[in-house]
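Archive entry. Fields below.
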Amino acid sequence: MSLMRRRTKPPVGSRPGTLVIDSAAQAPTIRLMTYTNSDLAEHAVAGVDELQALIPAEGVSWIDVHGLGDLHTLETLGKLFSIHPLALEDVVHVPTRPKAEAYEHNLLIITRMIRVSGDCDVDSEQFSILVGSNYVLTLQEWDGDVLEPVRQRLRAGRGIIRSAGAGYLGYAILDTIVDAYYPVIEVVADRLEQMEERVMTDPSPKTLRELNRLKNVLIRIRRSVAPQREAVNSLVRDENDFLNDTTRLYLRDTYDHCVSSSEAVENSREFVNGLMNTYLTVISNRMNEVMKTLTILMSIFVPVTFMAGLYGMNFDSMPELHWKWSYPVLLLAMLMVAGGMLLYFRRLGWIGSRTRETDDG
Amino acid sequence: MSLMRRRTKPPVGSRPGTLVIDSAAQAPTIRLMTYTNSDLAEHAVAGVDELQALIPAEGVSWIDVHGLGDLHTLETLGKLFSIHPLALEDVVHVPTRPKAEAYEHNLLIITRMIRVSGDCDVDSEQFSILVGSNYVLTLQEWDGDVLEPVRQRLRAGRGIIRSAGAGYLGYAILDTIVDAYYPVIEVVADRLEQMEERVMTDPSPKTLRELNRLKNVLIRIRRSVAPQREAVNSLVRDENDFLNDTTRLYLRDTYDHCVSSSEAVENSREFVNGLMNTYLTVISNRMNEVMKTLTILMSIFVPVTFMAGLYGMNFDSMPELHWKWSYPVLLLAMLMVAGGMLLYFRRLGWIGSRTRETDDG
Amino acid sequence: MSLMRRRTKPPVGSRPGTLVIDSAAQAPTIRLMTYTNSDLAEHAVAGVDELQALIPAEGVSWIDVHGLGDLHTLETLGKLFSIHPLALEDVVHVPTRPKAEAYEHNLLIITRMIRVSGDCDVDSEQFSILVGSNYVLTLQEWDGDVLEPVRQRLRAGRGIIRSAGAGYLGYAILDTIVDAYYPVIEVVADRLEQMEERVMTDPSPKTLRELNRLKNVLIRIRRSVAPQREAVNSLVRDENDFLNDTTRLYLRDTYDHCVSSSEAVENSREFVNGLMNTYLTVISNRMNEVMKTLTILMSIFVPVTFMAGLYGMNFDSMPELHWKWSYPVLLLAMLMVAGGMLLYFRRLGWIGSRTRETDDG
Amino acid sequence: MSLMRRRTKPPVGSRPGTLVIDSAAQAPTIRLMTYTNSDLAEHAVAGVDELQALIPAEGVSWIDVHGLGDLHTLETLGKLFSIHPLALEDVVHVPTRPKAEAYEHNLLIITRMIRVSGDCDVDSEQFSILVGSNYVLTLQEWDGDVLEPVRQRLRAGRGIIRSAGAGYLGYAILDTIVDAYYPVIEVVADRLEQMEERVMTDPSPKTLRELNRLKNVLIRIRRSVAPQREAVNSLVRDENDFLNDTTRLYLRDTYDHCVSSSEAVENSREFVNGLMNTYLTVISNRMNEVMKTLTILMSIFVPVTFMAGLYGMNFDSMPELHWKWSYPVLLLAMLMVAGGMLLYFRRLGWIGSRTRETDDG
Amino acid sequence: MSLMRRRTKPPVGSRPGTLVIDSAAQAPTIRLMTYTNSDLAEHAVAGVDELQALIPAEGVSWIDVHGLGDLHTLETLGKLFSIHPLALEDVVHVPTRPKAEAYEHNLLIITRMIRVSGDCDVDSEQFSILVGSNYVLTLQEWDGDVLEPVRQRLRAGRGIIRSAGAGYLGYAILDTIVDAYYPVIEVVADRLEQMEERVMTDPSPKTLRELNRLKNVLIRIRRSVAPQREAVNSLVRDENDFLNDTTRLYLRDTYDHCVSSSEAVENSREFVNGLMNTYLTVISNRMNEVMKTLTILMSIFVPVTFMAGLYGMNFDSMPELHWKWSYPVLLLAMLMVAGGMLLYFRRLGWIGSRTRETDDG
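PREDICTED_STRUCTURE:
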């Protein structure tokens, strides 16, 4: 797990607006969806230079860019949609903190898309939304997203989404991304509930390592979800030219989902902290058991071993050695010492019913 | 215990307002109570389609729906009472975070009803209140609620409740639900006080597990109670068309109860954290006792065993072996070593009066 | 110690304003003090029905009710002084959270009176103040209060208190109650300072239990003091008809005392948490000492016991057994092994000057 | 260390403004400094009754009172400078929480003066400043202060201080007191840095006690510094008749120093908490070392002691006893067992290079 | 590591504005860069007295001072640029808390420049920026900074930086300094990720010491970064004469970087705290392993040693001693005891597959 993700960025001190392309970034592919109330067309755009010709004057266009790995594409998009240099920089130099900022020509929403990956790990990716008067431009880092349902609703052609303009489409995309947080948090929460049993029965370093890993996963989810809340709230609160009042009402719902997700992350974090404390306590308990076992064992054998040693001495004059019943009497005495010790420990509660209960526990 | 309750909801990205029925949800039954200052009628409504005919033009109607398991019912209610699609979604897609939101035609209050279940566990259920100009529509997930006293007051027919309109009825229902928090918290607090003794006398993993369970119960109660506070506060503070000033004055009292409940939960959480620390300390103390026992035992027997071993050696020339009083003198020396050790440990405070005090403690 | 005090209250869902009398509540006794600038009269009122006749039209009346155990008394007082049903409920259904609320006919101040009881424990009792235009009605749960100085000042007849009206009397009572917090906190703080030594010298479970008890006492004091601060602040800040500007200036001083008391409680809580950590550390240290003692003992005797065992073997051919100086040489070797071990442990710092320092510490 | 300092104050419930003189308070001495732009005079005032005659109509007077132990003096000062009874009470009944309050005739600033005392301990004393139109009255509890530099600047007669009026003098005094916080915090911080090494090398109870003591010293410093910040901020923010805009600009600087001091205290507290955790960890580590030593020792000697015991048995038929090479072979076997154990522990990392590293650590 | 850096400052109580030169401060060197849209000139200024002549009436001048060790230079700069005495004091008496304050003639920005030094340690240095109408005066404590890229952009002569005035240059410098925080935090974060493995495999005091060191480095970074955030925010929010709206828009971006840096520091601190807990747990686990080893060893050998001791006794009448098969039967019995113990511990899970897993962990 990486504690921090390096931000792609120009050398310290460069002119604001200088774009730097991360060499590992994916080459961009562009998909275009244009629709009016009645018609819808989809295009796989070969290159960014063809784009302008494809965008109709009427209706709404959704320009859907996957991959940030080409400077020319990004600069052309910047010019085409009058993106402010600072906004473009925020889009390209991932990761940017989620936020919403209104510029003169469009509204920039930076958000993060998270997905489960591998064994209960989480991938997160920056997703930028630019809402203009008649277009929505979205840019994501890698292929693969959670937006297929939005595309289906557009294609289905019924309902508000085809008629309500670019602002509503922007909202629908943002809402879909935020809705996708909850299932991811659930996967981690489920794993944590499974860990609860394991902490009690198998408090090994492996278990601790897994708890630590899940805790760090939760920290990373929080890092994506928490600033999102603030960003959506600013969209709900601050008027702008790109979202009308109805859409802002819907966003109130998106905000509620952000809050719920945030709380779910906090609850899970509280839960994992509780598990870690339990882990420590279980180890303490086990050590206590080990120590008791050792002490009981020594308490039984050390005195009788001493008694045996006593009569192994070679003094000339040890009258007991010559008595007839010495040996069986000594054996009896040893049994009594050992039994007395056992009774004493039972009275202290170290052995007997309570121990058994502890073993089950 | 489930860390998170899955929210019923449409597939990620669906149109807002799309309702999805949880297959495990209870089939709805509808009860109707209509009253004016002078008359009161109760109906068990067979189906949602009969409802409209039963609602009188005058007086207040309380439509009391138990169970959210039928799409047709919910959609019909939505149309009948002009419920905003987002409000209806919040009602149906449980759990929604408690909140209060004024729409054009009615006021939506989402709250949670909690009840003790089983062995000091807690069930919580979403309870939605829609307050209109002349009706209150309540929707709960399962049969069984805490509202019987409200119904009795309506039937008794005296007092403000019959004359003060739908807003007051909405307040009475909300207040009754909030009032029911305190007894539930008390049950958990009582159990915690009983645990206090057990932590001192029986610090077994079972005890720890019970503490953890109660802590998680408190976390779940808090999750219901805490957002409630905020929601009621917004009702007290923000004017709306459905609650008049007198009712808002009463709500101030409901708000105070929310705050008290919140504080009671926090106090209990603080208490359970204290118990967990005590648990750890008691275990440490016990380990200390075990170690002391072991050390005292070894300190007494190990030296004398060595002395016995010394005279078990078979050297030809060990003059002591042949002296007459060697054996009794050695026995005496052993007694003195053991006694000296005991005196030393008493001086260190490891045995004697203090130990006994510790056993009692 | 009780984690929560059950609130007397009507069954869940009753009409607001329904009064329920706690069966354990004390029967009320009423004392009346009426005064003008020149005269003062005191009456022990036999029953609430006589009260109205005793209250003069001029001057200020202080109706001082001890005990909340009679419904008729409370309802009559409610009518006599036009107490709002919600206000009366807050007075009767103890405990209510401290607060200040202005109603049409009077100002309600709910506060808590705390007193030391038994062995450094704390009793707390609800004290309600209703300030009207020419009267102050105070209601407390039990006989016995901290207000004797106020009565003396009234009787003494000099100074502002006789001339400044009901609002000033209300302030004087509230200020006296708040002033009484500090001495109670001091008693607990003193005990905590005594515990500091005991934690170092006698870290027994008894000590821990006492720390826990004091911590819970502090939590209960905080529960009384903290909301008081807020309540007094609202009196200072919000204008109302019952306190004039001069009185509000004096209340600023009362507010300062609330803040100081709150801070003193927080400081004591911080201190007790520190003591608990110290307790844990002292136990760890002691365990360490026990372990060292055991290890040193075993290190000295186990090797030499082995050496003795070696020459207790019965092999036919063990040449050492027959040498003349074997026995004294072996004894010397044993001494050297034991001495070497002791030197080694001194070098590790386990014994010697440092140990002694630790014993003193 | 005292957890709380008792406040001198009148019996609970006395009339506000009643002054009570602490019997331990120092008898007051009064010094007077009067100056105009051109002249400066200093007087040791014999008694408070002479004071009025000495104060000139023109210029600024600084009345500097050391000791609060005489009622007549304090009451006379109160009348002379029209001090509000509540203000006078705050001055006399130490300790009062630092604050700034504007009254009709003067501005009251309550502050605390702290000084290092003894072995890294801290004394704190209340210092009250009353700023009037043409005078500054300061009252402190004991002789000895940090204000000599202010007096020197006045005597030097150059610069703004002689010409800028009483408000500026009040600021200069307050600023000097706040500036004196930093060196005191530095003394504690230095000691903490010295403790860091000691925690690693000598984790004795003495060290813990010293850490606890320093932590409590920091708590007391914070108690003086933290409310100061608020008080100075209110002076910067709220306009009043006694400080002009220029002086308030200078106070912004004093406020910055308050913030810095607060942060330095918090940093030191964080550091001391870190040290305490380190302390616990070092003890755990040491216990681990002790346990390892014990286990290694027992692992080597217990098996070979058993082997020796085996051949010390007295059975008639033990053929090994009569073989010629039994004894040396057994010795060899013992060496191999012991050596094997040592190798096993080295493989586990319990002994060898890592142990040595740990010893150094 | 130093917990606090002493502030150079005049003796307590000096006149505000008194400058004190730290004797360890570097002697100042002055570099001047003057530019218009078309021309740029650079000068190494020999002495401060030559400066005035070199500053042109048109264009922007950047006066870049390295070293604060000369009173004459600082006072001359103060007069030349009409620096307010308090501002000059903040510049000279390092360290001053980062802040932004607008004065009549210029805008003072106090910031901190941090750099990695040595083995993952951090140096921090005060950097003061004074923005006037046509000049920027920067003062830093030591030679060496992160501003080379800004100088290159000026020399390159293209872009907004040459035409946008002094305010923009001030922004560019501040932004470059803030941008330099992130790489420093990354270096520490990288080291922490490396430590994660080491904590699991080598929990020695050396590891703990390194964790403590990194934690303190993070505390110091936070001390530089956190107040920066506030300072930049006040620049974004408050209008002033020296930064136009466009520049303030750019500063919003700088503010975002401050927030990101702050969060990165907090995340790292959370991570290091987690590592410390893991450290403690790993030690507990190891102790547990040691104890188990000891207990298993003793459990196997102590009983059989007792059996051997039993038959080493010298009683006359011990019939077993004379039976033929006694010896082999006893050996068998010993094997069975030892084997039974091993089976028992395997059943308890102390040895076997689980132990091996633990060794790997």
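CURATOR_NOTE: Chain B has two domains: 29-280, 286-360.
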